[in-house]
Amino acid sequence: MSSHNRSGESGGVIYWIFIAIALFAALNFVVSNIGRGGGTGMEELAHLRASEIIQYASAVQRGIRVMTIEGVDESELCFHAAQWGHNSYEFNPQCTDNTNRVFHPDGGSITFQDGVEEWYDVGASAPDAMDWVISARYEVTDAGTDSGGAATVAANADLIIATAPLSEAVCNAINSQLDFIPSTPPVVAAGTYLALSGNKYTGTFSNGAGRIGALGRQRCLAEDDGGGDVAFYFFYKVILAR
Fold this sequence. Notes:
The protein is of the alpha+beta class.
């Protein structure tokens, strides 16, 4: 079992400072744009929700970076937390060492956050709906080392955080904030998100027939329903490129 000496409290305070600054800036942007007639209230609220999603995923990424700098190996990263309501991320012996746990003061010091209902299209159906997913299933082109071809190779799979089913307005706002023009989300094959949610990270990375193409290290995508229509929208971010 590994042991890593660190101060969790300072990391947690810094995380909340970053989040508070980002949300204050986003709220100020909303109010000022409404006042100038720069957009409808609903559009600006979608941008605020998009900021929340992007900032939280980035906070998880920063927590992982700090942990790896302090000596936690990628195979030791543990995302288990009681707040999930399941044990899908728990694996021993690494999760018994709190310094390996991303959502623990002794580890990544990241405050666990549930998905916020206002982010989502509550009428849509998606695996692990209205929750975060941390997956070791896919390679993302141009993130880390690419194996080439259409399949994910376990040695090059990236660690990804994702959430679904987002509302179309929030999805478009995410892509707009990430400077993807047009912001309309690219469509990926049916079952893409199921493969992510079905391969939650427990210390190992997996092979697979598919991969996320050259769509960026973070983006909102539309998943096809298998018949040419959009089933739902989802956000993903590479939090550890390999």
